[in-house]
Specification:
The structure holds two protein chains of two kinds. By secondary structure, chain A is mainly beta. Chain A has three helices and 20 strands. In chain B, strand 1 and strand 2 form a beta hairpin. The chains are: A mainly beta, B alpha+beta.
Chain lengths: 285, 202
C-alpha cells in the first residue's frame, strides 16, 4: 500500500491548507490564521471522521481538481459547489467515498466564496508553530496549494456516511457589531451612517480583512492612535474612513482606531461574502 | 489603568505610560501561569495591553484592582546584545532631524535604554522603545518597496529591525546580522516584549 496522499491537478484563484490556526502567539507578531469559515471547516472534518483540528483545503471559489492516490473519503462544505468524483455528480455536504486513482473536482462557488474540502485522515503537512495553516500576512505555514502539490494524508478514519449537512452556513444581512474600543474616535453621525448604510465588499478583500466600500466614517480627532493589540473581527477604520473587518490573518497590532468588533458567530458570513456583494452593520450590546 | 471592552471576550487595558505597560504585561502572564487568568493572548501595545480570548471577562475585570503594577526589575537574562553597523541610507537625514552630526547621532542612539515594547507588523518584528519624545522621527513619505532583513530603522519613538525582507516606511539607520526570527529555534523570536537590547558596534 502506498502513502496516503492527494495530488493537486488544478486550483481556482487560491487554495490553501487551513486548520484552527496558531492562536496564543500574537505577542510575537504571529497572526492567528486558520480557516476563515470555522464552522464549515469543522463540519467537513466531522463528516469524514476527523478531529475538528485536522487540516482541510480552503478553496476560494471552489474549482479545484485533485487525484487520490489511495481510497479516501472526502466532504465539501462552506460555499456551495457541485462535486464530481471521476466525472460523476456526488453530493455536497456529505461524506463521499473515493477510490484510489479517482479524480475529485469542485465546481465554481454558486453560493458563498470559500469551499472546504476535508479528507479522511486530514492533510498532514508539517506543522509550523503548532499549526498547518497558511498565513497570507506573515507567510508562515505551507505554501499555497498549486498544480503538482502532493498533500500527504493522516491515517484512515471512520466517516459518517449517513449524515447530511443542512446547507451552506446561514448568511446574515447585517453583521452584528459590539462598539469599542475606539468608537469615541468617531462622530455620533458616523455611527448612524455605519448602521444605516449598505457597504459593498471590495475586490481587495482577502484572508487578512474584508475591505468595504461605502460611506466614510468621520473622526472626531486627528492624530495617530498608539499601536495596540487587534482582535479577530475588529472593524478597523483607516484614514480613508472605509471600514475593514479583520479576518484570521489580521496583523496582531495596528495603529488605526477600531470602531467595534463583529461577533464571532458572524465571521462565517464575512468568510463567504463575494466581492461586489452587499453587507450592513447592526450594533448590539 | 483603565479597561475597555472589546467584542465578547477581550479587554484592552489602557496604561499610564510604557513602564505600566511592561508591568501589566508581566503581571498578566504571571497570573495566567498561576491559573488565575484564563486567556488565549496577552498582547502589549504602545500604551495598552490586550487580553484576548478571556474565558471569564467579568472576573478578570474585577481582579484588576489587585494587580501589581510596579515595573519588573531589570533581569540580566533578558538583555540581548545586538551588533549593529550604523550605515543606513537615512542616517544623515535622521542626524540632521536631531540637529546632530552623524557621529553624535550614532552615539546618541547607541546609548539609549532600548527595551522591546511590543511586537507586530511581522513575526519577530519588535517595536523597541528608548527614543525620547524630542527625538521622534517621522516615517518616510514614500515607503520603500523592499527593505532587507536585518535593516534597523526608526519611526516615531521606536527603533525596529526587519526580521525578513519586506516593504517598509521606517528611516533606516543601520543593519545587523542577528537572526531576529528563526523557526529552528525553540523560541523563534530573538526579541520579545520586555527584552532589553544593547547595541554594540558591528
Amino acid at each position: 500500500m502506498g502513502e496516503r496522499s492527494l495530488e493537486v491537478l488544478r486550483t481556482g484563484p487560491q487554495a490553501s491548507i487551513q486548520d484552527l490556526g496558531r492562536p496564543g502567539l500574537a505577542h510575537l507578531g504571529v497572526p492567528r490564521s486558520g480557516a476563515l469559515d470555522t464552522p464549515a471547516h469543522c463540519l467537513a472534518n466531522r463528516l469524514v471522521g476527523n478531529a475538528e483540528a485536522a487540516a482541510t483545503l480552503e478553496c476560494l471559489d471552489g474549482r479545484i481538481l485533485l487525484r487520490a492516490t489511495t481510497s479516501v473519503t472526502v466532504a465539501v462544505t462552506g460555499a456551495r459547489t457541485w462535486v464530481r468524483v471521476s466525472g460523476r455528480a456526488r453530493p455536497w455536504g456529505q461524506a463521499v467515498a473515493v477510490r484510489a486513482g479517482a479524480e475529485i473536482e469542485l465546481g465554481a462557488a454558486e453560493e458563498g466564496l470559500r469551499a472546504y474540502l476535508a479528507v479522511s485522515g486530514g492533510i498532514e503537512v508539517p506543522q509550523v508553530l503548532g499549526s498547518r495553516s497558511s498565513d497570507q500576512l506573515s507567510g508562515l505555514g505551507p505554501d499555497a496549494v498549486s498544480p503538482g502539490t502532493v498533500l500527504p494524508l493522516g491515517s484512515r478514519t471512520v466517516p459518517h456516511f449517513h449524515v447530511e449537512a443542512i446547507g451552506p452556513s446561514r448568511r446574515r444581512e447585517r453583521l452584528r457589531l459590539r462598539l469599542g474600543p475606539r468608537d469615541d474616535w468617531f462622530t455620533p453621525r458616523s455611527l448612524e451612517v455605519l448602521t444605516a448604510s449598505t457597504y459593498v465588499v471590495g475586490s481587495a478583500s482577502n484572508r487578512i480583512g474584508l475591505r468595504l466600500e461605502g460611506p466614510a466614517l468621520r473622526r472626531t480627532r486627528t492624530g495617530e492612535l498608539d499601536s495596540e493589540g487587534m482582535v479577530l473581527g475588529a472593524v478597523q477604520v483607516p484614514p480613508n474612513g472605509r471600514p475593514v473587518v479583520f479576518l484570521n490573518d489580521h496583523p496582531t497590532t495596528g495603529g488605526y482606531p477600531v470602531v467595534g468588533v463583529v461577533l464571532r458567530e458572524d465571521l462565517a458570513t464575512c468568510a463567504q461574502l463575494r466581492p461586489g456583494e452587499q453587507i450592513g452593520f447592526e450594533i448590539v450590546v | 489603568m483603565r479597561a475597555r471592552l472589546l467584542g465578547k471576550d477581550a479587554l484592552l487595558l489602557e496604561c499610564d505610560g510604557p513602564g505600566q505597560v511592561r508591568a501589566a504585561y508581566a503581571e498578566a502572564r504571571e497570573r495566567r501561569e498561576r491559573g488565575e487568568l484564563d486567556c488565549v493572548d496577552v498582547v502589549p501595545g504602545a500604551t495598552t495591553v490586550l487580553l484576548d480570548g478571556l474565558r471569564e471577562r467579568e472576573r478578570a475585570q474585577d481582579s484588576l484592582s489587585d494587580w501589581r503594577l510596579e515595573e519588573p526589575d531589570l533581569d540580566e537574562a533578558d538583555v540581548v546584545e545586538l551588533s549593529i553597523t550604523y550605515d543606513g541610507p537615512d542616517l544623515e537625514t535622521v542626524a540632521a532631524h536631531w540637529g546632530l552630526s552623524v557621529e553624535e547621532a550614532v552615539k546618541c542612539h547607541r546609548e539609549l535604554d532600548h527595551v522591546v515594547a511590543f511586537c507586530g507588523f511581522a513575526p519577530g518584528f519588535a517595536y523597541v522603545s528608548g527614543l525620547p519624545e524630542g527625538l521622534a522621527v517621522p516615517r518616510l513619505r514614500e515607503p520603500r518597496s523592499e527593505v532587507p532583513a536585518g535593516a534597523v530603522g526608526l519611526a516615531g519613538r521606536f527603533t525596529g529591525i526587519y526580521p525578513r525582507p519586506s516593504p517598509g516606511g521606517w528611516q533606516l539607520i543601520g543593519r545587523t546580522d542577528a537572526r531576529l526570527w528563526d523557526l529552528r529555534r525553540t523560541n523563534p523570536a530573538l526579541l520579545v516584549p520586555g527584552t532589553r537590547i544593547r547595541f554594540v558596534d558591528g
